[in-house]
Amino acid sequence: MPNPTAAMLVIGDEILSGRTRDANMYHLAGALTDHGIDLKEVRVVSDDAPAIVAAVRALAAQYTHLFTSGGIGPTHDDITADCIAEAFNQTIDVRADARKLLSDHYEKTGRELNEARLRMARIPASATLIDNPVSIAPGFTVENCHVMAGVPSVFQAMVQSVLPLLSGGAPMLSRTLRIERGEGDIAAPLGELAKEFSDLSFGSYPFQNDGIYGSNVVIRGQDPIRLDTAFASLTALFPQ
Amino acid sequence: MPNPTAAMLVIGDEILSGRTRDANMYHLAGALTDHGIDLKEVRVVSDDAPAIVAAVRALAAQYTHLFTSGGIGPTHDDITADCIAEAFNQTIDVRADARKLLSDHYEKTGRELNEARLRMARIPASATLIDNPVSIAPGFTVENCHVMAGVPSVFQAMVQSVLPLLSGGAPMLSRTLRIERGEGDIAAPLGELAKEFSDLSFGSYPFQNDGIYGSNVVIRGQDPIRLDTAFASLTALFPQ
């Protein structure tokens, strides 16, 4: 049975302006691979409601799961929750369960649960909450869409909360051979090998630095024995 | 006049599997901001022809420019050039100008211009070449789509070759204030300020590490005087 598929939507001007280097995509990609869910597409859009709604609808329709990051805090530019409600044609309001999480937390820390912070309890009607052990304000899941924070430590905690609840397939395994030869020299035999093991995926990722160049050849698949067999053929083709 | 817009398409399984952390998106985002071109959307897709063709068509139609990275090397998984030709309904073959660049280069370095390397001279019929001072094999521009390599050093060199040829608008300027207070405490006055300066964009990017939390508030705009005025109001609102 093929693995479940996934897309990710990163929401926020800070990535598109070059201010911030993305960390969440890299983290989620690795976590999904380990869990046996195939990440097929990522999109990054700005804090713009029509762009967010359109991307959520397109990606949620096309893949088993959609994971979003960013835009669920208390400030004016945090519009993700409202956009998700619109994309799934749901109402959204401050919800008692989320409000209680926040009021308990702010009571303990002596801070005020003001109107801005209450925005973080705005949750679409049918959503289930995603636990946030780092800073309490929850993420949420609507249908197949998992809505998480943009701050990397919070994002990672939410991924850890939600991922065990999702069925995964066989984890995608990989073996990598570093070959210090030009890609042009290895391309023909490598292409033949990829054809011979057409049930596996072969990628060639060239590098060059400090005058050394070559390629990391990565074989991916779910069957460890096939992977070992293919890797043995690869190392025989390109002895170090 | 509004700035030209852009999208980026990152092509390659290695980002989606979590093997590689993207560097090209971060580099291009910064370079475009400096050049006065607004990066509006990024997509990452795997080495899958239908997915690449569909994304190229959608993004090239929607934005002034499309920049792609990855998939133009000599190995079997390098399918970008053929996908670009298909997306723009053009023929593609080994082209004399690109072939000459490669044959001159390999003659000098004593390596063989074999069939695999010749794949890097496959260029769509109407394309103009993008200079690659690092490893010679060129990128190319078809209509509004700029096709570049995935290896970061080569990608960056190609960006430097192509960007000066494109008209940019006024560079987007930004000022950042680090505020060590909870986002929930600054949200209301910040929202008011954002309304007052509605010609500028206000973003709040929370952080928390080592027990210190707060937010970087970023104001963006093209008019330096407006930006200074808004930044003065911001610092008055949140004195350090």
Can you characterise this structure?
2 copies of one chain form a homodimer. Chain A is of the alpha/beta class. Chain A folds into 2 domains: 161 residues, MoaB/Mog-like domain (Molybdenum Cofactor Biosythetic Enzyme, Chain A, 3-Layer(aba) Sandwich), CATH 3.40.980; 65 residues, Alpha-Beta Plaits (2-Layer Sandwich), CATH 3.30.70. The first copy, chain A, is 40% helix and 26% strand. The first copy, chain A, has 9 helices and 11 strands. In chain A, strands 2-1-3-8-7-6 form a 6-stranded mixed beta sheet, with helices on both faces. In chain A, a hairpin with a 2-residue loop joins β7 and β8. In chain A, α2 runs parallel beside α7. The radius of gyration of chain A is 22 Å and the shape is elongated. The mean pLDDT of chain A is 94. At the A-B interface, α1, α2, β2, α6 and α8 of A face α1, α2, β2, α6 and α8 of B. β2 of chain A pairs antiparallel with β2 of chain B, so a sheet runs across the interface. Chains A, B: This is Molybdopterin-binding protein. Chains A, B: InterPro entries: CinA, FLAD1_M, MoaB/Mog-like_dom_sf, MoaB/Mog_dom. Chains A, B: Pfam families: FLAD1_M, MoCF_biosynth.
